[in-house]
Write a structure and sequence with these properties.
heterodimer, A: alpha/beta, three-stranded parallel sheet, elongated, B: alpha/beta, four-stranded parallel sheet, 4 helices
């Protein structure tokens, strides 16, 4: 064996020794306990509960995928619960993000669409951030397998003019 | 009256010292959640999306937040989480700087739109992969002993 091959092997061995303990640790279960459970939070959508987009701008796969994600989380909640991991979904309604803009335009723009929601507005960044923080915090420690809708009540009923 | 004794209730929504991984976090709702978690006391928040430049930019903004903990940091770990290989790369990158994760927010998602007649098989599968399959494999890679 040449000297350079040997050096390379040693280097490789050193690398493996350094990185292995991390690589093989199940990251979410490493510190999880009954008192301090880890959290899985999945961003779903109200489009996975009620009607998403149909017609010219139909989002058939998206609606089905989000509905699937909501049910997947229920499976995870019971399977991973005993490993001290809680699993939940957030289902946002319309937020004025880059990805949502084409659809918001389709429904008449931000202002017109906002008026159709019971609370009179679309979602704001802090609405989503606060929900994620809540589910991740000690305050959300007994919530598992749930889908939290953040849409100002739009899923219950929309206001028509 | 024991029910009135709520222990340490003032910190009930605190994420003090927590480590979070958020997919799709270089913009939009994921970025908002990253900012919220850092300001709620998280010590490390991993920012990931397909575009390395966007991850770096998001981290630069987050690391300037005046209300995060001084030692807390947003860490850029670009990866394409719509594929299982990409998810594995993400786990590998994250593992370099932490031995555990407290919070996994699987947020990456997106869609194309088309009427029924023009919805192609390839696009349908891509949207399912990104919004559903990747959720399962993200979770698997973070709980599996043999990742």
């Amino acid at each position: 064996m040449s000297k350079s091959t040997l050096t390379n092997l040693r280097k490789k061995k050193k690398h493996i020794k350094l990185s292995m303990p991390f690589r093989f640790l199940p990251l979410l279960t490493a510190r999880a306990s009954v008192q301090d459970a880890s959290r899985i939070i999945v961003t779903a959508s109200v489009g996975g509960i009620g009607l998403a987009n149909i017609g010219e701008q139909g989002t058939f796969a998206y609606a089905a995928a989000k509905a699937g994600a909501i049910h997947l989380v229920k499976q995870l909640a019971v399977d991973l619960g005993p490993r001290h991991i809680l699993s939940n979904c957030i289902a946002p309604g319309f937020f004025a993000t880059e990805g949502s803009m084409p659809f918001i335009e389709k429904y008449g723009g931000e202002e017109a669409l906002a008026k159709t929601y019971p609370n009179g507005r679309l979602g704001k960044s802090e609405d989503f951030a606060a929900t994620a923080v809540f589910l991740a915090s000690r305050g959300g420690a007994h919530i598992n397998g749930h889908c939290l809708v953040v849409d100002g009540g739009g899923i219950v009923g929309r206001i028509s003019e | 009256m024991a029910a009135a004794n709520l222990l340490d209730f003032q910190s009930i929504f605190s994420l003090e010292g927590k480590v979070a991984v958020i997919t799709g976090s270089s913009k939009g709702l994921g970025l908002a959640a990253a900012s919220g978690m850092l300001q709620a006391g998280a010590s490390k928040v991993y920012i990931t999306s397909r575009t390395p430049g966007a991850c770096e930019e998001a981290c630069a903004v987050l690391n300037q937040l005046p209300t995060k903990r001084p030692v807390a940091s947003a860490i850029s770990v670009p990866a394409d989480t719509s594929t299982v290989e990409g998810i594995q790369r993400l786990v590998d990158s994250v593992s370099k700087t932490t031995d555990h994760v407290d919070i996994l927010l699987v947020n990456a998602g997106g869609t194309q739109s088309a009427p029924i007649e023009k919805t192609e098989e390839k696009e349908f599968s891509e949207v399912l992969d990104l919004n559903l399959k990747s959720v399962f494999y993200c979770v698997q890679k973070y709980v599996n002993q043999s990742t």
